[in-house]
Specification:
single chain; alpha+beta; 7-stranded mixed β-sheet; 6-stranded antiparallel β-sheet; 11 helices; 15 strands
Length: 298
Amino acid sequence: MAGLKLFRTDTTNSGMTEVVPRLAEIEADVQGLVEAHMETLLGVRFLASEYSTGPVHGGRIDSLGLDENGSPVIVEYKRGTDVGVINQGLFYLAWLMDHRGEFEHLVRDRLGVTAASQVLWSGPRLICIAGDFTRYDVHAVREHRRSIDLVRYRLFGSDLLGLETVASVSGGMQVARRARRGAVARAVGDVQGAAMVELAGAVDEVLLGLGDGVNRVERKTYRAYQRLRNFACLCPPQRTKLLVYLKVDPKDVDLVPGFTRDVSGLGHHGTGDLEVQLRTLGDVERAQNLFRASYAGA
Protein backbone atom coordinates (compact mmCIF):
# COMPACT_ATOMS: atom_id res chain seq x y z
CA MET A 1 0.00 0.00 0.00
CA ALA A 2 3.05 2.22 0.29
CA GLY A 3 2.89 2.77 -3.47
CA LEU A 4 -0.88 3.23 -3.64
CA LYS A 5 -2.15 6.69 -4.47
CA LEU A 6 -5.79 7.67 -4.04
CA PHE A 7 -7.38 10.69 -5.73
CA ARG A 8 -10.76 12.35 -5.31
CA THR A 9 -12.30 13.68 -8.48
CA ASP A 10 -13.89 17.11 -8.51
CA THR A 11 -16.70 16.92 -11.06
CA THR A 12 -17.49 20.61 -10.64
CA ASN A 13 -14.09 21.99 -11.57
CA SER A 14 -12.79 18.90 -13.41
CA GLY A 15 -9.97 18.76 -10.92
CA MET A 16 -8.22 15.96 -9.06
CA THR A 17 -7.18 16.03 -5.40
CA GLU A 18 -4.90 13.48 -3.80
CA VAL A 19 -6.19 11.89 -0.60
CA VAL A 20 -3.03 11.55 1.48
CA PRO A 21 -2.75 8.29 3.46
CA ARG A 22 -2.06 8.51 7.18
CA LEU A 23 -1.70 6.40 10.28
CA ALA A 24 -4.18 6.54 13.14
CA GLU A 25 -3.52 8.97 15.97
CA ILE A 26 -3.49 6.11 18.48
CA GLU A 27 -3.64 2.31 18.25
CA ALA A 28 -7.07 2.24 19.88
CA ASP A 29 -8.55 4.09 16.90
CA VAL A 30 -7.60 1.22 14.56
CA GLN A 31 -8.85 -1.36 17.04
CA GLY A 32 -12.19 0.37 17.54
CA LEU A 33 -12.78 0.74 13.81
CA VAL A 34 -11.98 -2.91 13.03
CA GLU A 35 -13.94 -4.30 15.99
CA ALA A 36 -17.03 -2.33 14.99
CA HIS A 37 -16.92 -3.81 11.46
CA MET A 38 -14.92 -7.00 11.93
CA GLU A 39 -17.18 -9.32 9.94
CA THR A 40 -17.20 -6.97 6.94
CA LEU A 41 -13.47 -6.28 7.02
CA LEU A 42 -12.03 -9.66 8.03
CA GLY A 43 -14.84 -12.20 7.72
CA VAL A 44 -14.59 -12.70 11.50
CA ARG A 45 -17.41 -12.53 14.03
CA PHE A 46 -16.38 -10.32 16.95
CA LEU A 47 -16.37 -11.92 20.39
CA ALA A 48 -14.44 -9.77 22.88
CA SER A 49 -12.12 -6.79 23.24
CA GLU A 50 -9.13 -6.50 25.60
CA TYR A 51 -9.72 -10.04 26.83
CA SER A 52 -7.74 -10.80 29.98
CA THR A 53 -5.51 -13.87 30.02
CA GLY A 54 -5.54 -13.93 33.82
CA PRO A 55 -2.92 -13.23 36.51
CA VAL A 56 -0.48 -15.97 35.43
CA HIS A 57 -0.05 -14.83 31.81
CA GLY A 58 -0.74 -11.24 32.75
CA GLY A 59 -1.88 -9.94 29.40
CA ARG A 60 -4.83 -8.72 27.37
CA ILE A 61 -5.73 -9.98 23.90
CA ASP A 62 -6.70 -7.03 21.73
CA SER A 63 -9.60 -8.80 19.95
CA LEU A 64 -11.03 -12.31 19.94
CA GLY A 65 -13.24 -13.62 17.15
CA LEU A 66 -14.46 -16.64 15.21
CA ASP A 67 -14.01 -16.81 11.44
CA GLU A 68 -16.39 -18.08 8.76
CA ASN A 69 -15.13 -21.65 9.14
CA GLY A 70 -15.30 -21.75 12.94
CA SER A 71 -11.57 -21.14 13.52
CA PRO A 72 -10.64 -19.12 16.64
CA VAL A 73 -9.05 -15.79 15.72
CA ILE A 74 -6.79 -13.45 17.68
CA VAL A 75 -6.35 -9.95 16.26
CA GLU A 76 -3.49 -7.76 17.46
CA TYR A 77 -3.07 -4.12 16.45
CA LYS A 78 -0.15 -1.70 16.26
CA ARG A 79 -0.36 1.92 15.17
CA GLY A 80 2.91 1.81 13.24
CA THR A 81 5.70 -0.76 12.89
CA ASP A 82 6.37 -2.89 15.96
CA VAL A 83 8.84 -5.78 15.93
CA GLY A 84 7.06 -7.46 18.83
CA VAL A 85 3.57 -7.79 17.37
CA ILE A 86 4.04 -11.32 15.95
CA ASN A 87 5.66 -12.74 19.11
CA GLN A 88 3.00 -11.11 21.24
CA GLY A 89 0.28 -12.63 19.12
CA LEU A 90 1.90 -16.08 19.20
CA PHE A 91 2.13 -15.86 22.99
CA TYR A 92 -1.62 -15.25 23.16
CA LEU A 93 -2.28 -17.99 20.60
CA ALA A 94 -0.45 -20.48 22.83
CA TRP A 95 -2.57 -19.32 25.77
CA LEU A 96 -5.72 -19.79 23.71
CA MET A 97 -4.83 -23.38 22.81
CA ASP A 98 -4.40 -24.12 26.52
CA HIS A 99 -7.77 -22.54 27.39
CA ARG A 100 -10.10 -24.09 24.83
CA GLY A 101 -12.94 -24.58 27.27
CA GLU A 102 -12.85 -20.92 28.28
CA PHE A 103 -12.97 -19.84 24.63
CA GLU A 104 -15.85 -22.19 23.81
CA HIS A 105 -17.75 -20.82 26.82
CA LEU A 106 -17.24 -17.30 25.41
CA VAL A 107 -18.48 -18.43 21.98
CA ARG A 108 -21.52 -20.08 23.57
CA ASP A 109 -22.37 -16.88 25.47
CA ARG A 110 -21.98 -14.61 22.42
CA LEU A 111 -22.96 -16.76 19.44
CA GLY A 112 -24.88 -19.72 20.85
CA VAL A 113 -24.50 -23.44 21.50
CA THR A 114 -24.25 -24.46 17.84
CA ALA A 115 -21.32 -22.15 17.13
CA ALA A 116 -19.53 -23.33 20.26
CA SER A 117 -19.90 -26.98 19.26
CA GLN A 118 -18.35 -26.32 15.83
CA VAL A 119 -15.15 -24.51 16.84
CA LEU A 120 -12.34 -25.69 14.54
CA TRP A 121 -9.31 -26.14 16.79
CA SER A 122 -7.12 -27.49 13.99
CA GLY A 123 -6.79 -24.04 12.46
CA PRO A 124 -6.52 -21.18 15.03
CA ARG A 125 -5.48 -17.91 13.39
CA LEU A 126 -3.50 -14.82 14.27
CA ILE A 127 -4.18 -11.59 12.37
CA CYS A 128 -1.74 -8.72 12.95
CA ILE A 129 -2.92 -5.31 11.75
CA ALA A 130 -0.28 -2.59 11.76
CA GLY A 131 0.92 0.52 9.98
CA ASP A 132 3.70 -1.52 8.40
CA PHE A 133 5.86 -4.63 8.71
CA THR A 134 9.55 -5.26 8.13
CA ARG A 135 11.00 -7.89 5.80
CA TYR A 136 12.03 -9.74 8.96
CA ASP A 137 8.37 -9.95 10.00
CA VAL A 138 7.41 -11.44 6.63
CA HIS A 139 10.22 -13.99 6.90
CA ALA A 140 9.34 -14.82 10.51
CA VAL A 141 5.72 -15.79 9.79
CA ARG A 142 6.91 -18.24 7.14
CA GLU A 143 8.99 -20.04 9.76
CA HIS A 144 6.08 -20.67 12.11
CA ARG A 145 3.57 -23.50 11.99
CA ARG A 146 0.60 -21.32 12.84
CA SER A 147 -1.85 -19.56 10.55
CA ILE A 148 -0.77 -15.92 10.52
CA ASP A 149 -1.92 -12.96 8.42
CA LEU A 150 0.00 -9.69 8.35
CA VAL A 151 -2.30 -6.84 7.30
CA ARG A 152 -1.15 -3.28 6.63
CA TYR A 153 -3.68 -0.48 7.16
CA ARG A 154 -3.92 3.12 6.03
CA LEU A 155 -6.53 5.79 6.66
CA PHE A 156 -7.47 8.06 3.76
CA GLY A 157 -9.21 11.33 4.53
CA SER A 158 -11.89 11.12 7.21
CA ASP A 159 -13.91 8.17 5.95
CA LEU A 160 -11.73 5.69 4.01
CA LEU A 161 -9.83 2.69 5.35
CA GLY A 162 -7.44 0.59 3.28
CA LEU A 163 -6.31 -2.94 4.22
CA GLU A 164 -3.55 -4.83 2.40
CA THR A 165 -2.44 -8.39 3.13
CA VAL A 166 1.36 -8.31 3.31
CA ALA A 167 1.84 -12.00 4.12
CA SER A 168 -0.42 -14.96 4.79
CA VAL A 169 0.69 -18.37 6.03
CA SER A 170 -1.60 -21.32 6.61
CA GLY A 171 0.46 -23.00 9.32
CA GLY A 172 -0.34 -26.68 9.86
CA MET A 173 -2.59 -26.72 6.78
CA GLN A 174 0.35 -25.80 4.53
CA VAL A 175 1.56 -28.76 2.44
CA ALA A 176 2.81 -29.20 -1.08
CA ARG A 177 0.23 -28.33 -3.71
CA ARG A 178 0.66 -31.65 -5.49
CA ALA A 179 0.08 -33.53 -2.21
CA ARG A 180 -3.03 -31.46 -1.53
CA ARG A 181 -4.37 -32.20 -4.96
CA GLY A 182 -3.71 -35.89 -4.45
CA ALA A 183 -5.53 -35.89 -1.10
CA VAL A 184 -8.56 -34.27 -2.68
CA ALA A 185 -8.52 -36.74 -5.55
CA ARG A 186 -8.33 -39.76 -3.24
CA ALA A 187 -11.18 -38.52 -1.07
CA VAL A 188 -13.41 -37.95 -4.06
CA GLY A 189 -12.30 -41.19 -5.70
CA ASP A 190 -13.82 -43.18 -2.88
CA VAL A 191 -17.19 -41.77 -3.92
CA GLN A 192 -17.13 -41.15 -7.61
CA GLY A 193 -14.43 -42.53 -9.89
CA ALA A 194 -12.01 -41.16 -12.42
CA ALA A 195 -14.15 -38.34 -13.82
CA MET A 196 -14.85 -36.80 -10.41
CA VAL A 197 -11.23 -37.32 -9.35
CA GLU A 198 -10.05 -35.30 -12.33
CA LEU A 199 -12.70 -32.62 -11.86
CA ALA A 200 -12.04 -32.10 -8.14
CA GLY A 201 -8.30 -32.03 -8.76
CA ALA A 202 -8.70 -29.40 -11.48
CA VAL A 203 -10.85 -27.18 -9.24
CA ASP A 204 -8.38 -27.51 -6.37
CA GLU A 205 -5.45 -26.64 -8.64
CA VAL A 206 -7.17 -23.57 -10.07
CA LEU A 207 -8.30 -22.18 -6.70
CA LEU A 208 -4.93 -22.73 -5.03
CA GLY A 209 -3.16 -21.21 -8.01
CA LEU A 210 -5.02 -17.90 -8.03
CA GLY A 211 -2.29 -16.21 -5.99
CA ASP A 212 0.02 -16.36 -3.00
CA GLY A 213 -1.37 -16.84 0.46
CA VAL A 214 -4.34 -19.05 -0.42
CA ASN A 215 -5.17 -21.27 2.55
CA ARG A 216 -7.30 -24.38 2.40
CA VAL A 217 -9.51 -25.19 5.40
CA GLU A 218 -11.13 -28.61 5.78
CA ARG A 219 -14.59 -28.86 7.30
CA LYS A 220 -16.83 -31.92 7.38
CA THR A 221 -19.29 -30.47 4.86
CA TYR A 222 -17.04 -28.32 2.64
CA ARG A 223 -13.51 -27.19 1.86
CA ALA A 224 -12.93 -23.46 2.16
CA TYR A 225 -10.35 -21.59 0.10
CA GLN A 226 -9.34 -18.54 2.06
CA ARG A 227 -7.35 -15.44 1.46
CA LEU A 228 -7.90 -13.13 4.43
CA ARG A 229 -11.48 -14.41 4.30
CA ASN A 230 -13.21 -17.18 2.35
CA PHE A 231 -13.51 -16.65 -1.37
CA ALA A 232 -14.62 -20.16 -2.42
CA CYS A 233 -16.16 -23.23 -0.79
CA LEU A 234 -16.09 -26.63 -2.52
CA CYS A 235 -18.72 -29.12 -1.38
CA PRO A 236 -18.42 -32.93 -1.58
CA PRO A 237 -19.46 -34.25 -4.98
CA GLN A 238 -23.02 -35.01 -5.83
CA ARG A 239 -23.81 -37.79 -8.27
CA THR A 240 -22.82 -35.93 -11.40
CA LYS A 241 -21.51 -32.53 -10.33
CA LEU A 242 -19.48 -30.44 -7.92
CA LEU A 243 -20.86 -27.32 -6.27
CA VAL A 244 -18.66 -24.31 -5.57
CA TYR A 245 -19.91 -21.28 -3.65
CA LEU A 246 -18.27 -17.91 -4.36
CA LYS A 247 -18.23 -14.47 -2.75
CA VAL A 248 -19.58 -12.82 -5.88
CA ASP A 249 -22.77 -10.77 -5.95
CA PRO A 250 -25.20 -12.76 -8.14
CA LYS A 251 -26.69 -9.46 -9.33
CA ASP A 252 -23.39 -8.75 -11.10
CA VAL A 253 -23.47 -12.05 -13.01
CA ASP A 254 -25.47 -13.13 -16.04
CA LEU A 255 -26.89 -16.29 -14.48
CA VAL A 256 -26.98 -19.38 -16.69
CA PRO A 257 -29.42 -22.17 -15.72
CA GLY A 258 -27.58 -25.35 -14.86
CA PHE A 259 -24.28 -23.46 -14.35
CA THR A 260 -24.75 -20.49 -12.01
CA ARG A 261 -27.45 -19.83 -9.42
CA ASP A 262 -28.31 -17.09 -6.92
CA VAL A 263 -28.51 -18.75 -3.48
CA SER A 264 -28.90 -15.57 -1.45
CA GLY A 265 -31.00 -16.45 1.57
CA LEU A 266 -30.95 -20.17 0.76
CA GLY A 267 -29.37 -22.63 3.16
CA HIS A 268 -26.22 -24.37 1.92
CA HIS A 269 -22.85 -25.54 3.20
CA GLY A 270 -19.95 -23.12 3.06
CA THR A 271 -20.14 -19.38 2.38
CA GLY A 272 -21.02 -17.27 -0.65
CA ASP A 273 -24.18 -16.27 -2.50
CA LEU A 274 -23.21 -17.48 -5.98
CA GLU A 275 -23.45 -21.21 -6.66
CA VAL A 276 -21.41 -22.60 -9.57
CA GLN A 277 -22.24 -26.10 -10.82
CA LEU A 278 -19.35 -28.00 -12.38
CA ARG A 279 -19.82 -31.18 -14.40
CA THR A 280 -16.87 -31.18 -16.80
CA LEU A 281 -13.37 -29.76 -17.12
CA GLY A 282 -14.87 -27.32 -19.62
CA ASP A 283 -17.06 -25.96 -16.82
CA VAL A 284 -13.95 -25.36 -14.70
CA GLU A 285 -12.41 -23.32 -17.52
CA ARG A 286 -15.70 -21.50 -17.99
CA ALA A 287 -15.83 -20.59 -14.28
CA GLN A 288 -12.30 -19.19 -14.00
CA ASN A 289 -13.33 -15.54 -14.37
CA LEU A 290 -15.82 -16.03 -11.55
CA PHE A 291 -13.10 -17.66 -9.41
CA ARG A 292 -10.79 -14.72 -10.07
CA ALA A 293 -13.48 -12.16 -9.23
CA SER A 294 -14.19 -13.86 -5.91
CA TYR A 295 -10.48 -14.08 -5.09
CA ALA A 296 -9.99 -10.40 -5.89
CA GLY A 297 -12.93 -9.46 -3.67
CA ALA A 298 -11.40 -11.30 -0.71
